Amino acid sequence: MLNACSLESIVREPAGIGRRLYSRKYILLLAVTLIAATAAAHGSSLWAGLFFDDHLHYANLNNMGWSYSELLDATTIKPDAFMHTWWQETQIQWRYTRPFSVLLAKSVFELFGRSVLALHALSILLHLANAFMVHHLCLKLTRRRFWSVVGALLFVVYSHSVYAVSWLAAQNVVLQTTLMLAALLCYLRASGLNLCPYPPSPSRDPTPDSGRSSPGPPFLPG
What we know:
Elements: H1 4-11, H2 17-21, H3 24-42, H4 54-63, H5 68-73, H6 79-82, H7 99-111, H8 116-142, H9 145-157, H10 161-166, H11 171-191
């Protein structure tokens, strides 16, 4: 049976492990790799323009103000407002409430001269930030640099992400992924939770116990 000290060493992340895993050379190579992969997979979306309900969102961003009610209504679709023939007897509307996403898009829209390209660039940058956070989470789970890079690259080129990154109406999906990953990593940092209690041998990857390999995991108390 484990005593309290050994159990704590399993649960809490060893001090200084982040500095050992992230050398300057590794950070540079990681940045170049993920930026190049993101640019190759999604760079063309900068010139994707507007698609489907992007046109309605663009018109709303162009005409709306900054009030909370306008942020709520910016993504509401009211067919009777732009369709003269409609078979419904009562008015209908589809509400896609996403005020924070609209606020961010409106800010970028105004700061960069109402540029559609800037909105696409925002989606790409958010996706790139997500890739870095996925890498960091994989590194916390495995402490293997190679597989952490593979995990981040798989996230970058995941086929369904093409729609989320290139379609401006789906920018809220990319943003919510950013916020979710950031919240998860903030929690892990604040709690000190150790996701990988038994790192690989020092000969293969940096570990907190330099010069010693970690023993196999003991049986946890049932």
